[in-house]
Design goal:
The complex is a heterotrimer of chains A (813), B (251) and C (85). Chain A has 23 helices and two strands. With 813 residues, chain A is mainly α. Chain A folds into three domains: 512 residues, Cytochrome C Oxidase, Chain A (Up-down Bundle); 43 residues; 182 residues, Four Helix Bundle (Hemerythrin (Met), subunit A), CATH 1.20.120. A two-stranded antiparallel ribbon of chain A has the order 1-2. Chain A is globular. Chain B is built from four helices and ten strands. In chain B, helix 1 packs across helix 2 and helix 2 packs antiparallel against helix 3. The radius of gyration of chain B is 26 Å and the shape is elongated. Classes of the chains: A mainly alpha (813), B alpha+beta (251), C mainly alpha (85). Bound molecules: protoporphyrin IX containing FE and copper (II) ion (2 copies).
Chain lengths: 813, 251, 85
């Protein structure tokens, strides 16, 4: 039995090629639970080590690696993906869509995530993993101070994770804005969908900043640049970049959980949310404010009093919307008919924990107190109360949606047992940490006075861990023997995911969901169509649900990155990189060439993004994240240069002329790429092909001038051909050689090469896209659908704009 | 309880921390911290108990198993989401919590100013440079000599610490004295303290700095002014501090 | 969609603005030149984004998304730089 080209669920192949949002959701949930077990095991190891105050089972270094990996795995590879498992499964159902806007990209996000996780795991077998805490403070995050080779691999793994997040961010932004059922406005989105929408908007900016930070860190690892060893502020630079991401990140992991709480509080009290619009406004406010408080993690550093005060005020500011949200949930209880099912117990418990976490957070907002709490177990206790409260709500979500996903009921009694053990274990574990708050964190031996608290915490930790055995047993039983759940097992549920079968059919609905009349109705699908009469030529075509390319691209990227991060360590790594790079190119072309049909509903593009096609919209969202990446690179440059003394800084290119010529070249290419669009619209094939080739040629010219300029600066590659060959054969020795002005010669060199290098890589990627377009256009493509030409053009203009700023900053100022 | 009543007494004498103009009696960082911490703890606990208690009470009162409430307008599957009334109460509770939070933080802010400005008002501050390295602390005195992992200071004196690092990011902190400052390469963070009781205090590192992070400790030895003078003289001559008197307590 | 002529006019304006950067550097004193150069970079960006990327024709919200990203990085760069002074 095959569902529109998809093998059946019992076949392994299905799970490798599926692009269906429900399948991907399940994959996300399962994989994240695997990482929960991994991160949890590390946590138990840490707790075991802390059972006694002296040395025990772990060495100092092993402990450091365990703490680091535990933090990174729990935050990145468990909590967020767990939430996005639900987002994948539930959001399209809640908004009445058949799937996400870009099903293949969704599969790509998943596979990138999985392989990023595997890359992380591999780092442990490369002679030691990262050992710098999940905050990865500089310069301990560099090989000079922490030579474990696996640390570089971790940087690569995190970069890959950022790529996964970026792809899925774009996908969810576009989906939620453009795939809603007819009659369902932004304002009417269910709370879980609202929470995911705001989460992805935060992720768009925050993860781009992390991406930039990791790219720079990666350059320091692989190319030996000196950003974070630069004494004038390298450490602080990392702290700024990291926390600019890191603070929004705590809301990114918490918001989906908040969404689950808001849903379950309504369902299990039988009441609608009190002050719904205020709650939504409060969440929007938090989303914005989350970018204004990052330096409250840096109160003890050398930042000035003015900015500390500002950050403190913002921090109080951001706690207020949360107050409102909490009270709204509490008041929703009143006059309800509360059913204390397992999902509700978990969510009610989560709110209790979150309140404790929130109150202890106010302590940290008072700078004088923060001075003392920084680096102690107070912080550890506080953020676990907040983040794992989020986890608690999500476990409630797992029970809540389990019948929907599996079509089976779980056992309530076992569920309540799980909650009981979980809640007791949790509080023993983390409350004990509050009581031992004078103890420094991330230490593996400590003073005997804290032993009692630590043992209490360890016991709590093991109870907490053991409670999950009950959960897994419960789900196991339910899966094989549980009673069948119908489409809507919960009384008073409101949202659309309960208005279809459990589990829902491949395309979710029999008819087309519609809210035009103010409530959910299903209108008939036009004969022979499932996409609701998409206005374009594909009329009678059925949407696709399978592609092998997402998995392939992720696998090849994985290979390439594994090689790149340890480039030069061993010939094996060099080979892996080159093989991975070329395989990725091939896979990307395969992806692009595949004729994959994923329609967009006619009514999709609504306020505030009316009338824009999902592909173009997706491109703009991507560009927004790329703006942040370039912006963070430029920001890093400004920050370092300012600390160094702005005017004392020497610009690296001795002449502005090559840069100016390149400016002309790029501007001209922007003009030719717009010509290509005009010709495509006019149906002029010759013009189209010619302008694409011209653009490609200009891009090549740009790179040639660039390499000439680099060569000119690099004494070891004496001629232009030598420099070019060096560039294209990835024989970077002349670039990173120790003699003369190379990448690592000074911070000026590092910033110049890395920033213009990032730009050059953008050019290369653009050239690949342009070349691809040119070849396809030569064979007659794009004359009736110029969208790809336009979208690549958008990217190309952006690369041009980036240069508009790089040129003055690095050449003339 | 005694701890609590001591703290309360302190609050009395220190309601407006800013009112301490220079020349008044200076307070140690420790006592400022203890007082603010106490207030936060007391209020935080109270608020926590009230809010969580209220949740539990309503959870119990409106439990379906009691069967007392009938919903007047139960939600139905497929309705467009909308909210329920009750906004007034929401804003009232929100307002109260906002007032508590803002008052607390603003009040603690004046203490921050005090903590930040402290040492500048004193003429004869003793300044010690603290340089962290993996894994230990160097203390560089005004005489140019360096003492490793031992900081000796006189009792009842303002000591200013200028903290930096030779390699990676550390954080210098002495829990009992309630002082802490980041030790960052290329940066100098400043903090100050007055130790009002003699003894041996423990300085620790509060930022993960490598495999030896747990062991990165130093002694802070607080002695009487006269003993300090003697010890300092010998330090100036020989480059290392003599052993402190044996009767010092560990704190 | 506009005509090729229009796009060409924009192109010429862009070239002139590019030259202006170097000219500013020659003529003005350092910080005035910095201001002038950044101004002309901003204008160039506006021209490219507005007319080559057709932001003027898209729903206004797309412009806001872009501006939001720009605001985020400006905030990061300026607040971080300010914090060390
Ligand atoms: C959703 C689940 C969890 C998340 C998101 C989470 C997150 C984190 C993070 C970010 C850190 C900081 C790592 C660092 O210092 O670099 C950390 C540390 C720690 N966590 Fe968790 N954690 C979770 C669950 C647990 C569990 C179940 C336990 C205990 C059984 C636990 C015990 C610890 C301990 C002992 C530390 C080390 C504290 C230190 O030495 O500084 N965590 N966790
Ligand atoms: Cu924060
Ligand atoms: Cu340390």
């Amino acid at each position: 039995m095959s569902e529109h080209g998809l093998p059946p669920k019992s076949s392994i192949k299905r799970w490798l090629v599926t692009t269906n949002h429900k399948d991907i959701g399940i994959l996300y949930i399962l994989t994240s639970l695997f990482f929960l077990i991994f991160g949890g095991t590390l946590a138990l190891l840490i707790r075991l080590q802390l059972w006694t105050s002296g040395e025990f089972i772990l060495s100092g270094s092993a402990f450091g690696q365990a703490v680091t990996a535990h933090g990174l795995v729990m935050v990145f590879f468990f909590l967020s993906p767990f939430a996005f498992g639900f987002a994948n499964y539930i959001v399209p159902l809640q908004i009445g869509a058949d799937d996400l806007a870009f099903p293949r990209l969704n599969a790509l996000s998943y596979w990138l995530y999985l392989f990023a996780g595997l890359l992380f795991l591999i780092s442990f077998f490369q002679g030691g993993s990262l050992e710098a805490g999940w905050t990865m403070y500089a310069p301990l995050n560099l090989p000079t101070y922490m030579p474990n080779p696996g640390a570089s691999t971790v940087v690569g793994a995190l970069l890959m994770f950022v790529a996964s997040v970026t792809v899925s961010t774009i996908n969810f932004v576009v989906t939620i804005h453009q795939m809603k059922a007819d009659g369902l406005s932004l304002w009417n989105l269910p709370m879980f969908t609202w929470s995911i929408l705001l989460t992805v908007w935060m992720m768009l900016i925050a993860f781009a900043a992390l991406g930039a930070a990791l790219l720079i860190l990666g350059a320091d690892h692989v190319l030996d640049t000196v950003y974070f060893t630069e004494v004038e502020g390298g450490s602080l630079l990392w702290a700024h970049l990291f926390w600019f991401f890191g603070h929004p990140e705590v809301y990114i992991v918490f918001f989906p959980a908040l969404g689950v709480m808001l849903e379950t509080f309504q369902t299990f009290t039988g009441r609608r949310l009190i002050g719904r619009k205020w709650v939504i406004l409060a969440m929007i406010l938090v989303t914005l404010q989350s970018f204004l408080v990052w330096m409250h993690h840096m109160f003890l550093t050398t930042i000035n009093l003015e900015i500390k005060t500002l950050m403190m005020a913002m921090t109080i500011g951001i706690s207020l919307p949360f107050d409102l949200i909490v009270f709204a949930m509490i008041y929703t209880l009143i006059k309800g008919r509360i059913r204390w099912t397992t999902p509700f117990l978990f969510n009610f418990g989560a709110l209790v924990l979150f309140i404790i976490g929130g109150i202890t957070g106010v302590f940290l907002g008072a700078i004088v107190l923060d001075y003392e709490f920084r680096g102690t177990y107070w912080v550890v206790a506080h953020f676990h109360y907040v983040m794992v409260a989020g986890g608690t709500a999500l476990f409630g979500g797992l029970y809540y949606w389990w019948p929907k996903i599996t079509g089976k009921m779980y056992d309530e009694y076992l569920g309540k047992m799980h909650f009981g053990a979980y809640f007791v274990g949790f509080n023993l574990l983390y409350f004990a940490m509050f009581m031992s708050w004078e103890m420094p964190r991330r230490v593996f031996t400590y003073h005997t006075g804290f032993e009692a608290y630590n043992q209490m915490a360890t016991i709590g930790g093991f109870i907490l861990g053991a409670s999950f055995l009950i959960m897994f047993y419960n789900f196991y039983q339910s899966w094989y023997r549980g009673p069948v759940a119908d489409g809507n097992p919960w009384e008073y549920s409101r949202t659309a995911e309960w208005a279809t079968d459990s589990p829902p059919p491949l395309e979710n609905w029999e008819g087309i969901p519609n809210y035009e009349k103010g409530f959910l109705e299903f209108v008939d699908r036009p004969e022979g169509l499932t996409d609701g009469g998409h206005g374009e030529d594909h009329h009678d075509r059925h949407p696709d649900h399978a592609s092998i390319w997402p998995l392939t691209i992720s696998l090849t990227t994985f290979i390439g990155l594994a090689g790149l991060m340890l480039w030069g360590e061993h010939i094996v790594y060099n080979t892996l990189f080159i093989v991975g790079l070329f395989a990725t190119l091939v896979a990307a072309v395969g992806f692009a060439r595949e004729d994959f049909y994923a329609p967009m509903p006619d009514w999709g593009a609504r306020w505030p993004f009316e009338g824009i096609h999902k592909n173009k919209f997706g491109m703009w969202i991507f560009l927004a994240s790329d703006i942040v990446i370039f912006g963070a690179f430029i920001g890093a440059y400004i920050f370092i240069r300012w600390g160094y003394g702005w005017e004392a800084w020497q610009t690296i290119p001795p002449e502005a002329l090559p840069g100016l010529v390149n400016t002309f070249v790029l501007l001209t290419s922007s003009f030719t790429v717009i010509l290509a669009l005009v010709y495509a619209q006019r149906g002029n094939q010759k013009g189209l092909v010619a302008s694409l080739i011209a653009t490609f040629g200009l891009a090549t010219l740009f790179l040639v001038i660039k390499s000439w300029e680099w060569n000119y600066l690099l004494p070891e590659a004496e001629t232009l051909p030598e420099a070019t060959i060096a560039l294209f054969t990835f024989d970077w020795d002349p670039l990173i050689g120790t003699e003369g002005p190379a990448l690592d010669a000074s911070i000026q060199h590092s910033t110049y090469y890395v920033t213009t290098g990032l730009h050059a890589i953008h050019i290369l990627i653009g050239m690949i896209a342009l070349g691809y377009l040119a070849i396809r256009a030569y064979h007659g493509a794009y004359l009736d659908d110029e969208q790809p030409v336009e979208n690549v053009g958008l990217y190309w203009h952006f690369v041009d704009i980036a240069w508009v700023f790089l040129f003055p900053l690095f050449y003339i100022l | 309880m005694r701890w609590a009543s001591d703290r309360l007494a302190q609050v009395g004498e220190f309601v407006v921390p800013l009112s301490h103009a220079p020349g008044d009696e200076w307070r140690t960082q420790a006592s400022v911290f203890e007082e603010i911490y106490f207030i936060f703890l007391a209020l935080g606990t109270a608020v926590g108990i009230v809010v969580i208690g209220y949740m539990l009470y309503n959870g119990w009162k409106y439990s379906a198993s009691k069967g007392t409430t009938e919903l007047d307008d139960p939600p139905v599957l497929g309705e467009l989401p909308r909210g329920e009334g009750g906004g007034k109460k929401l804003f009232l509770s929100f307002g109260i919590s906002a007032v508590i939070v803002i008052t607390l933080i603003v009040w603690s802010y004046s203490a921050l100013i005090y903590a930040e400005q402290g040492p500048e008002e004193f003429e004869d501050n003793m300044v010690v440079e603290v340089e962290g390295y993996t894994f230990g602390w160097d203390f560089i005195y005004e005489n140019g000599e360096t003492s490793t992992n031992t900081l000796v200071v006189p009792e009842d004196h303002v000591v200013t610490l200028e903290v930096t690092s030779r390699d990676v990011w550390h954080t210098f902190g002495v829990t009992e004295l309630r002082i802490k400052a980041d030790s960052i390469p290329g940066q100098t963070a400043t903090t100050w303290f007055i130790a009002d009781e003699q003894g041996i205090y423990l300085a620790e590192c509060f930022e993960l700095c490598g495999a030896g992070h747990s062991f990165m400790e130093a002694d802070v030895i607080v002695v009487s002014e006269e003993t300090f003078e003697e010890m300092y003289d010998e330090f100036t001559e020989t480059g290392s501090f003599p052993d402190p008197p044996d009767d010092l307590e560990e704190r | 969609m506009a005509s090729i002529k229009f796009y060409f006019a924009i192109y010429v304006a862009l070239l002139l603005l590019a030259v202006s950067k170097v000219v500013f550097m020659e003529l003005l004193d350092y910080w005035a030149a910095v201001g002038g150069i950044m101004l002309s970079a901003a204008v160039k960006t506006g021209l490219i984004a507005g007319f080559y990327q057709h932001l003027v024709d898209e729903p206004r919200a797309v412009t806001w998304v872009v501006l939001m990203a720009v605001a985020a990085v400006l905030l990061l760069a300026s607040a971080a730089t300010f914090s060390i002074t």
